[in-house]
Amino acid sequence: MTATSGNPTLTELLHAAVAAVGGSERPGQVAMAEAVARAIEDGTHVLIQAGTGTGKSLGYLVPAIAHGDRVVVATATLALQRQLVERDLPRTVEALHPLLRRRPEFATLKGRSNYVCLHRLHEGVPQDDEEGLFDQFEAAQAAGGPSSRLGKDLLRLREWADETETGDRDDLTPGVSDRAWSQVSVSSRECLGATRCAYGAECFAEAARERAKLAEVIVTNHALLAIDAIEGAPVLPGHEVLIVDEAHELVSRVTGVATGELSPGSVNRAVRRAAKIIDEKAADQLQTAAETFERLMELALPGRLEKIPEDLGYALAALRDAARAAFTALGNTRDASVSDEDAVRKQALASIETVQDVAERVVQGSEFDVVWFERHDRYGASLRVAPLSVSGLLREKLFAERSVVLTSATLKLGGDFNGVGASLGLAPEGQHGEEMPEWKGLDVGSPFDYRKQGILYVAQHLSTPGREGSRGDMLDELAELVEAAGGRTLGLFSSMRGAQAAAEELRGRLDLPILLQGEETLGELIRTFAADARTCLFGTLSLWQGVDVPGPNCQLVVMDRVPFPRPDDPLVSARQKAVEEAGGNGFMAVAATHAALLMAQGAGRLVRATGDRGVVAVLDPRLAKARYGSFLRASMPDFWYTTDRNQVRRSLAAIDAAARSAAAS
Length: 665
Prior knowledge:
The protein is of the alpha/beta class. Helix content is 49%, strand content 12%. The chain contains 27 helices and 18 strands. α1 (10-21) crosses α3, α3 (56-67) crosses α4 (78-100) and α12 (264-275) crosses α15 (341-364). The chain is globular, with a radius of gyration of 27 Å.
C-alpha cells in the first residue's frame, strides 16, 4: 500500500499498531503484511509460514483493516481468540483510528452451543431417563445448597447468567463440566428460534450474531467456519477476506465437523425423546429398529468396513426409515399435555434428524466416505463415517469469491508448502488451472536464531520403537537427559500409556517433580510447570501444540518417538490407500506429513523468546536413519543437529548452570 491523497502507507499503519501493542517491527512481520495486502488487493490467496515471535496477528490484521472490507479471522484455539479480541484488536483499532479516520467494530462469533440458552436455563427440558437435573438442582437448593459437583455447577451457571454480558462459555472462569453445560445450552437444531422463544429478545447467541452483522472484523473458530462451508445455510455474515490462523489445524477440524456417528446410546436417546410425543405405531417402529441396531453393535469389532455387511445395511435402512417416520410424526403431532412442548419437540427432532442423516449416509455408501467401527471401554461400540478427503470441499467452499490468507508457524513441511496445499484442495504452487485457485506460499522466517539457540539431538543408538512393550533403553536415556537439564523438561509422548510409564519410572529414579497430564487440569499443570524450573511435565497430544513457556523453565523438549498415526487407524489407512491408487506415495503424503506437522509443532515449544536456549531430543533413531528422516527434520526449526549423546549432556548441564546462576544473581 502506498500513500495516495494523504492516505497512510501500510508501513505507517503497521508502525502505529506495533507501537500500540507494545513491541518492535520485525522484517518477517513487514513481509507478511505486504503479502497479505497484495493478496487482498488482487483477490488471490496466500499461505504464510510465520515462526513464533513474528507478530503474525498484526501482520494480517493491519492490512485487512486498512483495506476496509469485512474480514473473518478463524482460529483453532481459545487462547488466540482471546488474544485477538482482548488485546490485539482493541489496541490496533485505536492506533489506526487517527490514521484511517474510522474506528472499525469487531466481534466474536461462535456456534450456538457455546452460549448459555436462557430458555433452557430457566425452563429446563425433561431428561431422558432420570427425574430431571433441574428438579434435583431445585431440591438441593431447597435443602440448603447443592452438594454434588453438578448441582454446584448449575447454581453457579444461574448466578453467572444474571451477570454476564456475553453468555459465552469461554468467559466463565473457572469453567464447568461438559455435563453441566449441556443442561444450559442448545445446538442450532434444538433452538426454538428467536421469534418463538420467550427469551428471544434477550438471547445471547442472537445478540452475538447481531454484533457480528455490524462488525468489520469477526473472530470465530475453525469449527464454525467448517459448518458455514459444509451445511449450505450461511452461519457467518458475508465477507470479502478470510484469514485462517493456526491453519495447520484446519483440515483436522473440518474433518471432525464432517464426521457422523451412531451409537446405541445416541440412538436410544433419540428414541426416548421422540416416544414422548409421537404415536404408538411410529414409536414401536423406531424402538424395534433401535434394538436391532444395538444387537449388531454388541458384536462389532473395531476397524474399517470396506463394504457394509448385509445385516448392518438392513438394520441401518430400517433405522433410517423409522427415523424418517418419527420425524414426520413429530412434525404433525401436538400434545397439549406435554409441558413446554416446543422445546421437547425441537430436542427430539434434532436427535431423530441426526440418526436419520447418519444412517442414510452410511446406507448410500459413497466412495468418498470411510466407514468404521470404534469401541470404547466406557461407551461401547459406535459406527462412524467421515470423508475420505476434505480437499475438494475446501477448494470449492473456502476459496470461492473471497481472498483467503492461511497462516501458521508450521505450513512448510519437508521444505515446501505443497503438502499442506494439497490437503486444502490446492494444486502445486504455480500449477493452478481454471478450476484450481491461484495461490502463493511465503515463509517469512522467525526472529529467532535457531542454530544458536537450540540443538536437535537424535538418539540414534537407541532401539527402534515397536508397537508394544517398554523401551528400557529409552527410559534410561530420558532419565539421564532430564537429570543433566536439572528438570526444565517438557516430555511429549505419542501415547498416554507411554507418558504414564515414563512418569512412573522417573518419579522412582529422580528427585524432581514430574507432572503428568490427566492428574490435574491442563491449565493448572502448565502454570505449575512454568513456575518451577525443576519441574517436568509429561503428556500427549495437547502438549505438543498447547504449551507456551518462554524462559529457563523449559529448556529440554523430549519426543519419545516419531508420532506417526496408528497404522490401523481406519481413516488414515483409507487415505493412504487412495493416494497410492492415484499413483502417489501414501505413507509420505499421509503418515509422514502427519508426523512432520506434529514434530514441527512440538519442537516449537522450545524457543519462545530471543533469550531462550535448549535442546529438542528425539528418542527415536528413525529420525536419523530412515529415508523419511530428512523430510521430518526439514519440517522442524533449523536447530544445530547432532547425534552425539555426550555433547548434548554437556550442553544441557551448561544451560542448567547458566540458568541457576542467572536466577541466583
